[in-house]
Write a structure and sequence with these properties.
heterotetramer; A: 83 residues; alpha+beta; Ubiquitin-like (UB roll); five-stranded mixed β-sheet; globular; B: alpha+beta; Aldehyde Oxidoreductase, domain 3; four-stranded mixed β-sheet; 5 helices; 9 strands
């Protein structure tokens, strides 16, 4: 699975893009966030306040319960500020 | 039409294209977003706009399609820049063309409200105090919420969503 | 700035002037009115716009001043043409510049609604069935009535006059 | 007093601009319209339906009760259709 990070989530994780193999126990966005946070304090910091984290799965907005599969692209980013 | 690009754009030429060879167009509405020179009391030297390329184009196409479904538009254009921009530079253009001016105005404002809250762009400001990511504003979400459809109540989508009087012009 | 003229105008250049040297401008809203090619089922070959010169400029200045009083505008422009115009030609430009996009949108739409119902211009259409004076539309008066002030009730002038939710963005 | 006419009011009266001296009995817009209508059938036709006639006195919208003096400019025209 591919994960991409933008803005300060990219800075806090130190990663703009990575490919991971999920353990069988992780099958939704919430599980992915917990698993990533347990790996590294930078990730734990990035995901500290989920109220300011937005998620997209395959380029569509998704919520924490969205199911994930190996071919998906998951994106984490703050509330947008374009326009 | 949507475009996501580093380069500037020509507002006059883009609006001309919206009405060219479309004799039914009675009105164009356009919004141009610009980089301001101050952030609170700090002078801005530049902003950087980061985006999520594979999502951005898809998202802009969706919103343009939704606007076209909700209002009788003859044509529309959304151009959003990314990269480094200085105060006074153009960031975004939204243009809508319709036989009816109120449709052009409403669709244009709808697309802009949507861009501000849903399009995957992030602004970083550079000032003499350093750089910071711009925070999203709650007022932008409230602005978008004005457009929530009231289909379930049997109201038409456009004028009623706005809360305007029922007698308002087309 | 207001101008009443026979000649065409350059939309891009006019909008550039609204924000030039005004670093506080975050958004421009513009409306361009165009001559349509059909009147009902009749093809229009041209329109003629007659106006009342000594009243027109005064009236446009008043409406621009009222918009500037009601919304926090940094600059605005109203250009209205008169004389003979063919389908596709520009008739009118209204442009507003503000730190806040909703102020720019509302002020622009207010000025356009006002022009349609108060500015002393009269359109005559030429079709293959002859010429006729265009009738005023009741919907245009209704559109202007949306902007009636509600000062007596203690509401702010802009958002409430629109009937938008109180939470709406600035 | 100067009177100006626009659009189909100009066509029905056949006059775009004229200067008149009002009799003492005419001192408001309503009186002016009656006096003009009595002069000529074209004027009577132009003022037949006052619901579609707008009035400006000295370049400001006015109503039928507006008082008139010798130096005023009065304009008669249909509801506007610009923009």
């Amino acid at each position: 699975m591919k994960i991409v990070y933008f803005a300060w989530l990219r800075e806090k994780t130190g990663v703009s893009e990575e490919t991971v193999s999920l353990p069988d126990s992780v099958n939704d966005v919430r599980g992915l966030i917990e698993w990533l946070g347990a790996k590294d304090p930078g990730y734990a910091d990035a995901f500290d306040d989920l109220a300011v984290v937005r998620v997209a799965v395959n380029q569509e907005y998704a919520n924490l319960d969205a199911q994930l599969g190996p071919g998906d692209e998951v994106a984490f980013f703050p509330p947008v500020t374009g326009g | 039409m949507i475009r996501v690009q580093r380069e500037d754009f020509d507002v006059g030429a883009e609006l001309d294209r919206l009405s060219a060879d479309r004799g039914s167009v009675g009105g164009l509405c356009a919004f141009v977003g610009l980089v301001r020179d101050m952030s609170g009391r700090r002078a801005i030297s530049a902003i950087e706009l980061e985006h999520y390329p594979s999502m951005t184009e898809r998202a802009l196409e969706q919103i343009e399609a939704e606007a076209t479904e909700r209002w009788p538009l003859d044509a529309s254009i959304v151009i959003h820049r990314f990269g480094r921009l200085e105060p006074g530079e153009r960031i975004v253009l939204v243009g809508t063309a319709s036989a009816h001016r109120q449709a052009a105005f409403e669709a244009c404002e709808f697309i802009v409200d949507w861009l501000k809250t849903k399009a995957p762009f992030w602004k970083r400001e550079h000032t003499d105090a350093g750089t910071r990511w711009v925070d999203a504003r709650a007022s932008d979400s409230a602005a978008l919420a004005r457009w929530d459809r009231e289909d379930a109540a049997g109201h038409g989508p456009s004028v009623r969503a706005r809360g305007a009087p029922k007698k308002a012009a087309e």
